[in-house]
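pinned: reference chain
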Amino acid sequence: MLAAAVNGLIPTGMGVYVFVEGVRRLFEPVDVQPGGMAAFAAIGLVGNLVGVALLYRARDASLNMRGAFLEVATVARPSTSSTVHEPSPSLGQSSCPLRCPSPDKARQEAQTQAT
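pinned: its structure tokens
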């Protein structure tokens, strides 16, 4: 019973933290650190590819294994394209399709327009 409560409270706490940080960053944007973002994307990509490799042979064993394989493969595909094909902001190329300015540059432009 205690383990079930902890298993429910930990994700709830994490969700509240992510929500609060998201709202806070709407009002006080922070610069994105491309190195850390790329590292986490690479870790996620490796995890997805390992999952696909492990489930590939067993995908025909049962409907559950096929479903698990298709789910992991479906998640791995966009992870692969966003990690491998996305231009790196550290190389001077914007990763935003709309060519979004950095938060500092956006603040400067807003202050310039206000005066």
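why pinned: Residues 54 and 95 are 32 Å apart (CA to CA). The two ends are 61 Å apart (CA to CA).
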